[in-house]
């Protein structure tokens, strides 16, 4: 296979011992612990208040009446966190299943055991969650005709703020006549301002993927002199409608507009033998981020790993050489090794393309903004499992994340397969088995809130609520880490089915999608883009659209709005 000529690459580390660059940074950069603002648990800059509901874990009670749960199983309480409360409509006391009488505090497993019906898709949930479930509540002959319950937060101190942001994880399934709102009340005035509404006019009834396993980020204006803000989650429906679950509530200082330049990267994955779409995607990326510092390809560059397929990709890259960023950073996927040839042969073809001597490594992107570290993870041996990894790679990964955290840097991590219970489709059980060390990798990331992992493989839509996920772990940092789905240059997939144990996946359409990443000193902005498909009959198009965007603050370098 020919070696593609490219501009010189710098600051790449493939081994566990680090690099001269890393050594110099350690020697010349202060390594003080990140400063923290107030909040519950271990805080980060800009977080004023957080409530995870996890402190209720030791108050959970055994199953009472829920017919779908085995007697003696522990998992629910109606006792709210300190200074929180639940206000139920008068009809709620007339009957219904006790576990779900108004807002309940439970676990994802206990709730799903009652009946799955997409409850199990709330993958970003961690430990104890808050649930309003009119469907399960109605599984009793004496259930009232309406479900009406409000979850009320503790008053949050907002003195001296002009604007704050309320964020929370949200898992909402709608039905005709069902509604849900979030409101804010300032200084106990008795007047509520609506911040969010779900109903049949804003959410597609029965299933709306944008609101399943999703998150909300709501701006709240704070008038001068205001001391406190109280938030309410109100859920109301006729009997036997659907549900709403929330988790990980936080109130943040609002971010000002970004200051200074950004260091940008292009991101594509799952090309799988579609070089025409790849060439078009690269041209579209060059049109929107011509000064990007790196091109990140997140696995499945080829369909099976033959020399001819790699040559096709080389030809596309050569044709685009005039607009390509300075650095190529690439991760290995499963489709790189499907020819039946020995693993070392297939691996070395990938390494030839990647320009390094290991499937894992480290890069630093230099651009108009801050330097951006990129850590690459990958499969080291033949399957199974899909991603066998050495202890050397795992230990290197934890060490490098620790290093960049000391530098207060946001870190991009790229790896082809998603970790279990992160982005779209990874709630499906078999996705948790791909990595030899899935749980350990998740735990390492969970203690680094400055880490953002970009993963491919699933080909799932950007439009889904779990396109980008803030994932928390047991004993990890309360902010967890971010995971983002890279989309695909090839076809799109999606899940079908009510119950996790009977789920199926289907190809939905031909697509051509990828990301841009813009990193400022105090934030990272990840944008999901649609480049439009091309064919032999139509080799170009005018599509170059933004589908989704998420702003991920640097938890250790916060720039609040003045």
UniProtKB/TrEMBL annotation:
Keyword Signal: yes
Pfam families for this protein: Metallophos
Signal peptide: 1-32
Protein name (Swiss-Prot/TrEMBL): Calcineurin-like phosphoesterase domain-containing protein
Residue ranges of domain Calcineurin-like phosphoesterase in the record: 266-461
InterPro entries named in the record: Calcineurin-like_PHP, Metallo-depent_PP-like
Keyword tags: Signal
Keyword Signal among UniProt keywords: yes
Organism: Georgenia halophila
């Amino acid at each position: 296979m020919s070696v593609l000529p490219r501009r010189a690459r710098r600051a790449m580390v493939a081994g566990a011992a680090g690099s001269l660059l890393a050594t110099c940074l350690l020697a010349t950069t202060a390594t003080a612990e990140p400063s923290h603002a107030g909040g519950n648990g271990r805080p980060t800059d800009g977080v004023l208040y957080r409530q995870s509901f996890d402190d209720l874990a030791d108050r959970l009670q055994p199953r009472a009446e829920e017919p779908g749960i085995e007697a003696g199983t522990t998992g629910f309480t109606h006792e709210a966190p300190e200074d929180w409360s639940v206000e139920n409509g008068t009809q709620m006391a007339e009957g219904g299943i006790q576990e779900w009488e108004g807002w309940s505090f439970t676990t994802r497993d206990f709730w799903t055991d009652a009946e799955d019906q997409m409850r199990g898709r709330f993958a970003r949930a961690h430990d104890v969650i808050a649930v309003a479930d009119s469907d399960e509540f109605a599984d009793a002959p004496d259930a009232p005709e309406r479900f009406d319950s409000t979850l009320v937060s503790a008053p949050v101190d907002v003195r001296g703020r002009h604007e704050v942001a309320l964020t929370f994880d949200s898992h909402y399934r709608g039905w005709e006549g069902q509604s849900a709102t979030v409101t804010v009340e300032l200084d106990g005035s008795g007047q509520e301002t609506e911040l969010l509404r779900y109903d049949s006019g804003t959410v597609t009834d029965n299933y709306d993927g944008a609101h399943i396993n999703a998150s909300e980020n709501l701006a709240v204006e704070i008038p001068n002199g205001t001391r406190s803000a109280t938030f309410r989650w109100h859920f109301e429906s006729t009997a036997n409608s659907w549900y709403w679950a929330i988790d990980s509530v936080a109130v943040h200082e609002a971010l000002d507009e970004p200051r200074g330049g950004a260091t940008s990267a292009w991101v594509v994955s799952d090309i799988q033998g579609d070089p025409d779409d790849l060439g078009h995607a690269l041209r579209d990326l060059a049109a929107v981020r011509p000064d990007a510092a790196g091109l990140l390809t997140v696995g499945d560059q080829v369909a099976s790993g033959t020399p001819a397929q790699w040559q096709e990709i080389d030809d596309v890259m050569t044709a685009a050489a005039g607009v390509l960023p300075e650095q190529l950073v690439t991760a290995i996927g499963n489709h790189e090794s499907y020819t039946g040839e020995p693993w070392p042969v297939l691996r070395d073809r990938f390494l030839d393309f990647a320009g390094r001597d290991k499937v894992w490594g480290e890069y630093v992107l230099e651009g108009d903004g801050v330097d951006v570290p990129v850590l690459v993870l990958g499969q080291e041996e033949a399957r199974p499992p899909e991603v066998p990894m050495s202890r050397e790679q795992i230990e290197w990964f934890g060490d490098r994340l620790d290093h960049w955290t000391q530098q207060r840097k946001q870190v991009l991590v790229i790896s082809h397969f998603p970790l279990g219970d992160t982005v779209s489709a990874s709630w499906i059980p078999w996705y948790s088995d791909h990595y030899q060390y899935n749980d350990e990798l998740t735990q390492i990331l969970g203690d680094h809130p400055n880490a953002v992992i970009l993963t491919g493989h699933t080909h799932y839509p950007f439009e889904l609520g779990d396109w980008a996920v803030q994932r928390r772990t047991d004993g990890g940092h309360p902010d967890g880490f971010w995971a983002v789905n890279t989309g695909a240059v090839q076809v799109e997939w999606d899940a079908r089915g009510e119950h996790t144990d009977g789920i199926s996946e289907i190809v939905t359409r031909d697509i051509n999608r990828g990301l841009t990443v813009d990193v400022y000193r105090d934030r990272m902005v990840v944008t999901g883009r649609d480049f439009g498909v091309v064919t032999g009959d139509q080799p170009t198009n005018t599509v170059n659209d933004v589908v989704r965007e998420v702003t991920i603050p640097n938890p250790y370098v916060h720039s609040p709005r003045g």
